[in-house]
Sequence to fold (175 residues):
Amino acid sequence: MTNLLLDTGILGRLCHPRQKQNRPVADWLAHLLDQGSEQVQVFVPEIADYELRCKLLHLIRKGQGTSKSIERLDDLEKLLEYLPLDTETMRHAAELWAIARQQGLPTAGDLALDGDVILAAQALAVQGCVITTNRQHLSRFVPAKDWTEMQTPQLPNPPERKPDQGNGLTDPGGS
Fold:
């Protein structure tokens, strides 16, 4: 079984599946779930949910977003496997944070909550690979790939989908 964890950027694209630049990601995940459900488990890590939810709520409060994005994030958590944080994972993240700083390669500012090391610790907990748009920071700790790299012989290139097709990853009602 292959465990895949979706990073914040990928989740954000999935929360806006009708935007042209995001459709390929939604189609890829729909195809992955349709074709590889017994071979692949896809997780929504709690830290990625937190980071994206903060951003979406902020946009809503500024009048630049709608609650539809939050609803889509909640729907993804029902469709996929939600990976909660626990004490062991947070302690492992603290070790990764310290190692990164010792090496002079921090992934966030000293006062910032470092989501990358927390996500890396979550991936290590399930022996997973992070699907991200930012491999640079994460690949120092765990396997990290762009979604386009996950097209294997077992999981061929996803077909083009119409807005009303699929398994809940696309929304014909808006972006």
